[in-house]
Predict the 3D structure of the following.
Amino acid sequence: MKYLPTARLTFLMSTLLLLSACNWWGSKDAATGVSSSVANETILLSLDGKPVITVKEFETFYNQTLEQQPQLAQFAAFMPDLKENLYNTFASYKLLEYWIRDNKINQKPEYVSDRDMLIENIERSLALKYFQLQFPVDVRDADVKKYYEDNKETIYLMAPSGIAALGASFGSEKDAQAFFSKAKKADDFIALAKDDDVTVRNFGRVNEQSNNLDEGLKQNILGVSSFPSVQLFVVGDTHWVVQVKSKDEAKYYSFEQAEDDARTRIMAERSNDMLMKEIENLKSKYNVIENKTYFETQAQEQQPMPDMSSILSDEIDPSLLSHDDKSFSDELPVQKA
């Protein structure tokens, strides 16, 4: 018998086997975990002469597995042996469980601790799940549409409005004028800058909210009315040659694209509000008394924050604090709404 046929099935099965609510095997012998209710049933698997899996138990397991993991049913179209694969995977885990008991690993303190922690976490998840089922929240289509409109400029903004611009800075008027004269005739601003060994900075879409460039330069760019064009600006002691490409309107995710996300967000907000309200009701119902002095004492005993200037001394290698000229936001993953 070939066990553990695929990594994906193994992962799905390991998830399913953590569900404490699923008692596939009825009552079990404490030493071996073998089902004791197998009389007059066809045995699919036995270990050391003791029945472990019956047809009835496997069929129950199989049907409940497909119900809880409907994506597995999709395998049936191109995997006629799906049912046997599920059996093989499950049988592998039963064999591992048998080995755990046979070697008394399940009696080790660390095993017991891990098991109890998993059970506690599952119990908490189930408590929250069924509490929310008892107090469902309603989200109407009109609510979703309003949420989308209210958050269109923030959550569902794909690209802000503004002027697409890039530029090069110069310390002298002579150098700036020389590059400006060539840039006005050039087809490719960036290629020209590369040929002249000039560094180009891409400002992206410049608008009133832009904070990645000098305020004076920003206002000069926003004052441009001809697109595309090349402009020469003087800001303080710096001369800027700027190419303004276009003035673009803001782009948004459509309502159809954002609808599911908006509904999920509303559900989460309302569920949380409901939970907080009902928790307060439960506190009254069950006469909850909380000892907040414990936390007050903890706060008083907490050591004061250290002086960071004494920690970040001159003896620290500055390279350890550098960030390769990247802003923190540059390393954040891009998130779509």
